[in-house]
Amino acid sequence: MAVRAIGEYKFPSSSRQELYGDDQLVHVYWKHNMFICAPSCFRVPKAMPWSAFLSEVVYPVWGQDPDFDPATAQFAWEVDDASISPSGDQSLESLGIGHKSLIVANAA
Fold it and tell me: What is the rounded average pLDDT of the residues 12-38?
């Protein structure tokens, strides 16, 4: 994501990819959810499978919404404004999810 500043930015970002090794920061937003109203940021391995990412990282946070049931959850997914149809065994990296990507979940 580009940074707009009113002056010169003469130092490296403290959240640049090279500081995270095989991990990356990923933002996840559940669009139109009234309980979880803002994106969450997670540090996760690039090689993490999609199914593990949901079950171990995202769904525990979304479980704070009393109406959320992961067993019946159905979402249309977007990564950085592009639709994706992930399968459970695909890695985040293979899905085009990069450092500081925004994953948006639209309830189906």
Answer: 95
Domain 19-107 fold is Ubiquitin-like (UB roll) (3.10.20)
Burial class (CB in 10 A: 0-12, 13-18, 19+), 71: exposed
Token pair, residue 89, equals 């065994």
Tokens of 66: 């009393």
Residue with tokens 């969450």: 40
Q: Which of 99, 105, 102, 100 is nearest to 54 (CA)?
A: 105
Domain ranges in the chain are: 19-107
Q: Once rounded to an integer, what is the mean pLDDT over residues 33-41?
A: 95
Three-state secondary structure of 45-71 = ECCCEHHHHHHHHHHHHHCCCCCCCCC
Question: How many helices (H) and strands (E) are present in the chain, helices listed first?
Answer: 2, 5
